[in-house]
# Entry
Amino acid sequence: MMKTIGYAATSCDAPLKPFSFERRALRHNDVAMEVLYCGVCHSDLHQARNDWGGSVYPIVPGHEIIGRVTETGPDVKRFKQGDIVAIGCMVDSCQHCDQCDKGNEQYCREGNTQTYNSPDRIDGQNTYGGYSKHMIAREEFVLHVPKNLDLSRAAPLLCAGITTYSPLRAWNVGPGKKVGVIGLGGLGHMAVKLAVGMGAEVTIISRSDKKRTDAEELKAHKYLVSSDESAMQKAANHFDVIIDTVPYKHDLDPYLPLLDVDGSLVIVGQIGPLAETSSVPLVMGRRRVAGSLIGGIAETQEMLNLCGEKNILPDCEIIKIEDINEAYERLERGDVHYRFVIDMSSLKND
Ligand code: NAP
Ligand code: ZN
# Structure
């Protein structure tokens, strides 16, 4: 066992604070790493606050992890000490069902093992995430980081990146496709950068005008304010795909008419109830509402490689671990451009 330290929430209303714990002894197929950077996802906040139910405390959040390999188990083939690696939202799955065989480990028939707040498949211990000095995961769930990527900005690719890349790929986004992105936060700004990188025409759909000046820098083609009824009416029937990143229960009715015939609105934000929705815009245009969960491991590597090739990186504000509670408050207020990343060297062992 390895003694380590992290930051944990001990109840749904407690601030995160330092927490000492042990990482498991290295298994034959495990990769151990020192965590260098960890992104702060809105899901961390949802789970720390038990918004989805099922939070088991203490929770050490963090599933956007960049680390340096410190040790490998005897059967590990693809990594060695010193390698720069990454871990996203999953650390295990059954590895033998049809979905795992297809590379859809996130839809594992037996359920994937989440990076935190999930029972380990072998010892049953609750998993602890990347707001910690050290991580351990089986080789199959560890990713290579392209050498040219700025490590201080790469972490958010592991959740915000893959969660938006996966539906963009599944809906064949590329040149000639019109993509809308609802909510310009961590996931939303990655959806914009990735869809632009894939050659689509991209529109940011935001609640206010406040972020309009950022649209150009993000290389978005258009900016639509969802509270501006006349602009929303003018944008009717425009989109092939809309990626909806709104983190709370909300009304889909204003957005569905924006879809073209056969268009799809893909929910990646709210995981839970939505406001009551009329079927009229669905029926009248063969429009679809869908959902999508993170992405598979091979697909995550594909996304990392693409980001390496095109130098696609999130816009990050680097914070110290002791500032995590303030960062959560700012995340709740929507005051982040566009992802907090914790520099884990700020977490001292004592
Ligand atoms: P975030 O950085 O807080 O961004 C969310 C954005 O949504 C905000 O910037 C805001 O954009 C908009 N928004 C916020 N509150 C809203 C409201 N009440 N109504 C309408 N729009 C609102 O969050 P994130 O880290 O991107 O995460 C977004 C959601 O995705 C979270 O719920 C998270 O749990 C979920 N998630 C899902 C998956 C998955 O696999 N499906 C993976 C990761 C995260 P504007 O100001 O531009 O309107
Ligand atoms: Zn996340």
Remarks:
- The first strand starts at residue 2 and ends at 8.
